[in-house]
């Protein structure tokens, strides 16, 4: 684990994000949140959303960073594992994760939070870092709290068509 990791004030970021999400529009809010997290959380090389637009498949949504892999099945990679299980995935070394999808060879650790609406996975927030062990339990809890703000302040439609 990286013991020199910077600390992030997620309570303050939560207040800022809550003020930033001043519309119920999910496209605007996910776009704003991806940009906000990419700018405010140190040591990220990608931050964005994958949305379940068809059964058991995630499609690329708003993001910041290099072009990304698309689509991702529920049986593929860290994002698929989060969507399949409905549980946050915090991976210290993506190269040791079975089935990892290497969209950016520079990524070394990953944090993926499922976004649950009415008991169903609506999508996931995916954060990548070039640092191994970048995400601590405190980061996971802080980002999960930010995701809850997004869910509460957005009208998330059924995207599965």
From TrEMBL:
InterPro entries: FRMsr_CS, GAF, GAF-like_dom_sf, Phosphatase_reg/MetRdx. This is Histidine kinase. GO terms for molecular function: kinase activity; L-methionine-(R)-S-oxide reductase activity. It comes from the Bacteria. It comes from Kushneria marisflavi. Belongs to the free Met sulfoxide reductase family. SUPFAM superfamilies: GAF domain-like (SSF55781). Gene3D superfamilies: 3.30.450.40. PROSITE patterns: UPF0067. GO terms for cellular component: cytosol. SMART domains: GAF (SM00065). Keywords: Kinase, Transferase.
């Amino acid at each position: 684990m990286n013991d020199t990791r910077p600390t992030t004030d997620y309570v303050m970021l939560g207040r800022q994000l809550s003020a930033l999400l001043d519309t119920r529009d999910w496209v605007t809010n996910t776009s704003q949140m991806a940009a906000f997290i990419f700018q405010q959380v140190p040591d990220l090389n990608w931050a964005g959303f994958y949305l379940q637009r068809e059964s058991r498949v995630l499609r690329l949504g708003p993001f910041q960073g290099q072009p990304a892999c698309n689509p991702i099945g529920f049986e593929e990679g860290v994002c698929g594992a989060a969507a399949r299980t409905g549980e946050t995935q915090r991976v210290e070394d993506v190269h040791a994760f079975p089935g990892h999808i290497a969209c950016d060879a520079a990524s070394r650790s990953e944090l993926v939070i499922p976004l649950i609406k009415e008991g169903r996975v609506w999508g996931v927030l995916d954060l990548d870092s070039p640092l191994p062990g970048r995400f601590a339990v405190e980061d996971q809890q802080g980002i999960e709290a930010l995701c809850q703000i997004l869910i509460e302040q957005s009208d998330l439609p059924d995207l599965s068509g």
